[in-house]
Every structure is written in structure tokens, then in C-alpha cells.
Amino acid sequence: MMLKGLVLAGGEGTRLRPFTYSMPKHLIPLLGKAMIEYPICHLVDVGIKDIGIVVGYLGHLIKEYLGDGSRYGARFTYIRQERRLGIAHAIHISIANGFIEGPFVVYLGDNILAHGIEKYVESFITSEPDVYILLCKVKDPSRFGVAIIEDNKIVKLVEKPKQFLSDMAMIGIYFFRDPDLVEKAFSSLKLSWRGEYEITELIQWFIDHGYTVKYDIVTGWWKDVGTPESLLEALYLLLDNVQPRIKGKVEGEVQGRVIVEKGAVIEGKVYGPAYVGRDTYIAKNATIEHYVSVESRSKILSGSVTRSIILNNSTIDLNKARLVDSIIGNHCYVKAKRELYGAIRLAIGDYGILEL
């Protein structure tokens, strides 16, 4: 069975503002890779090389960044979703424009799954259900579409329930066998109270009409990145799994599981787990503490940073201060002009300037 992949990246990322005013959230880097590259690499790793990418908000930036797919060993087709009418609508337009003609897997472009999708692809191919979805137990099911399960079968799917119905959330990876059936299901849908064609209602059609809908429960961690807090949580989870790698120049001190990319220079201290991107400079008066990602071409000139993300081409000069639980956008400049002590928490969008 030859599968095509469909990566959805059309959302505005409103909950991640101010960072998404100037770039789509799918291009926010984590450990040197744009967020959307994680699902793309998972698809390519299992041999899915024909991938459609549904874009909308700032979609031209995604297209410029990813290109035609050749550097990933894949072929990309870009599908524009002019109006953000939901996941089911994104699938529909991908079928309607001729990209999807057979079995396919949908992977939300802001999802990061710990161990990839290999075993789930194998399960879909061998069991041949009409629909196959992945679930994960969550603490706050009101944020997700959830599955109500009875006797090991899904009986009902509900989008963002206002009262507790189930703690099994749909994680944003969906397999479909027959696009004609998907189109038939889509033709029955109406816009929800959120103004979208809901994926839960699309799959519910298959359940209600007696088709085979199977599921699997993800055992490793999974994170959908939609808020600054979840972006930092995704960083922590990724860093928990890194292996040390030193390709840059270390003149200071590096301890623990630290990645230092090519061209980086470390004169100060870095304590892992941490990531230091390409051509980044950590000065002798600077300390990178645990769970930090300093992305490409940024400079940390003084002070300390912990549990934070510094995006590309930014300069941080904190004097004696300590940056914690923070996200600093691209091309930012943060300087403490006097001796500040204690913790500072910041969220600064691209090209921000802050003098303390």
C-alpha cells in the first residue's frame, strides 16, 4: 500500500502571538529544526515521500523555507487553504484538487511525537481499516477532540467537550484508506459552532455508517504546540532525549548532554541538557543553564539563561540578571544597562528591543 502524506500548516497561531505576527508557528525552530520539519521527517523516515503541505497564513514563508522537498528526499505539493475552515476542509481541498487519490496519512504541522509513526503506519497497512487514528491520555481534554471508547471500540468523537466525556484525545495524526469515502463524509458536514468543518464529525460519519475505525494509544510523549507554555514544554521533552554532540569550538566549560553545532563558539559555561545552534556565541560572562535552546547566530554576552528559547540572530546581554521561562524572538536585542539581580521572564516577538 503506497501512502501519501498531508501536513497541515494553515493556521494563524493566534495563541503564540507575538511570535506569529511575523512568521507562521510552524517555522519556529526547536533544536535547529523548524517545528514543521519534525512531522515531515517522520513521514520521510517511513518511506512516505509524496507529501502535500496545506498552507494559509504566511504560507509563502513556509514554501520558501521548505522548498520543493528535495533536501528531505521528498516531493512537496503546496495546497492553499484560502479560508481557515478546519482540518476536515483542508483534507477535502487536498482531495478535490487531485493531490490525494489513494490511502493517505494526515499529520498536523504543529505536532511533535516522541518516537515517530513507523509502527502506526505498519498497523494501518496490515489491518486495513477505513480510518485509523492515534489517541493519547491528557489532563485537559477540553482542549482537544476526544474519543469515547466502549468495548475497545470508538463509539463517539467530540470536539473540545465543555464537560468531561473522556480523557483520550485525538493527537492530530489520521489515516484514511479511501478518499472517495472521505469526500462522501465531508459532503454531509456542516460548519460547527467554531466555524469549522470538524475532523471529529468527519470520522464520526464513518462510525455511524458502519465502517471500520480503529485506533492506537500513543505510549511515548506527544506535544501539540499552540501556546508559549507548550512550546517550552516541547523544548524540554526534546532536550530530554538528546545525545551530546560537539561540532563547534569550546573554550569555556560544557557539562552534561549538550549539542554544540558547527560554527558555535563557547567561552562561557553551558550545562545540559541544552542546545547551542550554528554560529552562536556564548561569551565568557554568560552561563547557559539547563533546558535552553539558543538557535542559530545568536549571542549571549552576559548573565544566565535557563528553561528558555532564544531564536535566531538575537543578542542577550543581561549583566548579572537571570532569564527564566522565556521566549525571545528572531533578531531581538535585550540589554541590562545596570546591575540587575534575580530572575526575569520575557516574551518578545521578532525584532524586539528591550533595555532594562
Name its key features.
356 residues; alpha/beta; ten-stranded parallel β-sheet; seven-stranded mixed β-sheet; 7 helices; 30 strands
Explain this structure to me?
The protein is an alpha/beta fold. Helix content is 19%, strand content 36%. The chain is built from 7 helices and 30 strands. Strands 15, 16, 18, 19, 21, 23, 25, 27, 28 and 30 form a 10-stranded parallel sheet that branches. Strands 5-4-1-6-11-8-12 form a 7-stranded mixed sheet, with helices on both faces. The chain has a 7-stranded parallel sheet with strand order 14-17-20-22-24-26-29, covered by helices on one side. Helix 3 crosses helix 5. The longest helix is centred in the middle third of the chain and has 12 residues. The protein is elongated. The termini are far apart. The model has no long low-confidence stretch (mean pLDDT 88).
